[in-house]
Amino acid sequence: QVQLVESGGGLVQAGDSLRLSCAASGGSVSDYNTAWFRQAPRNEREFVAVITWGESETYVIDSVKGRFTISRDNAKNTVYLQMNSLKPEDTAIYYCAARSPRVGDEDYAYWGQGTHVTVSA
Length: 121
Description:
Layout: E1 3-7, E2 10-13, E3 18-25, E4 33-39, E5 46-51, E6 58-60, E7 68-73, E8 78-83, E9 92-99, E10 110-111, E11 115-120
Parallel strand pairs: 2-11
Antiparallel strand pairs: 1-3, 3-8, 4-5, 4-9, 5-6, 7-8, 9-10, 9-11
């Protein structure tokens, strides 16, 4: 069973950048589709980005397209979310999550604890 731990959040100003990390243990990130979600206070959890297992295809939602990049470092067994040009509306708790299509997972079954991102105007 893979365990995920997020880090890299913080308090920044609008226009700043952050790189979030999702460190995995108990499994290889290259074997999982690994996604970033975010949840602002009293808001629904929102899917943000995903990188697929194996061939590392990526997808990000329109609201962060051109600003956020998801990537993976297999040697470090870590998935990253590079966030540039941050906006106050990006403020949320950011979670990473994983599923394994290779073994038949349809839902994101593995979740980290979250890392806080606060962007001031």
